[in-house]
Amino acid sequence: xxxxxxVGASLAGTRAVQGLRALGHTGxxxxxxxxxxxxxxxxxxxxxxxxxxxxxxxxDGVRLITAAELDQxxxxxxxxxxxxxxxxxxxxxxxxxGTEVAYDVLVIxxxxxxxxxxxxxGSGVYQLRTLDDARAIAARxxxxxxxxxxxGGFIGTEIAAAAAGQGCPVVVVDPLPEPMARLxxxxxxxxxAGLHLRNGVRTRFGAGVVGIEGEAGALTxxxxxxxxxxxxxxxxxxxxxxxxxxLAGSGLKLDNGVVTDRFLxxxxxxxxxxxxxxxxxxHSGRGVEVRAEHWTNAGxxxxxxxxxxxxxxxxxxxxxxxxxxxxxxxxxxxxxxxxPEGSTVVIGSLDDLGKVAVVHxxxxxxPCGVVTVxxxxxxxxxxxxxxxxxxxxxxxxxxxxxx
Length: 403
Ligand SMILES: Cc1cc2nc3c(=O)[nH]c(=O)nc-3n(C[C@H](O)[C@H](O)[C@H](O)COP(=O)(O)OP(=O)(O)OC[C@H]3O[C@@H](n4cnc5c(N)ncnc54)[C@H](O)[C@@H]3O)c2cc1C
Known about the structure:
It is built from 10 helices and 26 strands. By secondary structure, it is an alpha/beta fold. The strands form 7 sheets. Strands 3-2-1-7-19 form a 5-stranded parallel β-sheet. Strands 9-16-10-11-12 form a 5-stranded parallel β-sheet. Strands 22-23-26-25-24 form a 5-stranded antiparallel β-sheet, with helices on both faces. Strand 20 and strand 21 form a beta hairpin. Helix 1 runs parallel beside helix 8 and helix 9 packs antiparallel against helix 10. The longest helix is centred in the last third of the chain and has 17 residues. The chain is globular and about 60 Å long. Bound molecules: flavin-adenine dinucleotide.
């Protein structure tokens, strides 16, 4: 009986457990998680939960699985204890409480942590990755005092929207000229900046933070433009770093994540897989190694590896490359990727029609991605057509027909 040990009890870890049992794995399964919490979903942490009442029902609503469901799946659950080392020769995972767990197959699903803030005054600076982080930030937002959000990526801008919704005066600061530009491209990023302004959020794009001083309730955020912003709370959302420290010395190849082959098998050891935000794999479409930090990818990779363990090696992992973000009442969706050397076709208009799709082609002229705002139908259609290998012009025309 193969014992599968999964380290990391969040989205990818939970989906791996569920996938193994759904596909008929009857051997022992152990799920190890550093957080003492039952697995929960992270997207609501920067959206609905941030402005919720934090009732038991609201928190239960973000759980990925219940204790009873884990029981039914006959999983040995070790929550609140981090893995601290991996011995691939002896096939042992060492835990923070001094115990060891032997495995036949190991699935690494330790995700990522918020990139630490370089600015750490005594208090008042927050980061968002965990349920506890969200609870602490929500309590600050409830005070309706000025908030500076450092980082105009999708998490930073969602926090800004939540803070504005709570009635806080908000400023978003980012050295890039526009919000979420890496994800959505300049055609949409400009409109997003306008959306934030219309909702009362002030922005300092193109400006970097050089220091945060003071304490909660009386912070000063200094910018490289010389401007000084007063804030009660600062939230620093400047990306994330893969959680791989515990794998130092394990012999696994670590380079901005756990490096895997096309089958998500970790390079450097047998019978070890990596899935979700921690995994860096050779992306078949893009021809480069990619570490995705997206919900859909984490679940897809976990299910893929569960199938690989139960039924043997299938085809290489193919990513759906799908991501979404909610900004106020706008729904931003992206599938595929953007090639800065490529070109774009814009269909629709946010100003006139309230919805838009941007079809991206790469440097060779092949379609590589589509970003939509408030137009899920176009996104779904484009996704199918991208998978069918249709040309950029055909996809753009099909989306025009939808208008
Ligand atoms: C605030 C927020 C909002 C988001 N919104 C969106 C969104 O709108 N759309 C989207 O596509 N994606 C979104 N994401 C990204 C998405 O949530 C992640 O891609 C997803 O959570 C990745 O799942 P994971 O299981 O790979 O990693 P994680 O969710 O990071 O979980 C990893 C788990 O492993 C644990 N762990 C780490 N080290 C150890 C160790 N040594 N031993 C044991 N356990 C360990 C961690 O404590 C954690 O519980 C958001 C993320 C955040 C933080």
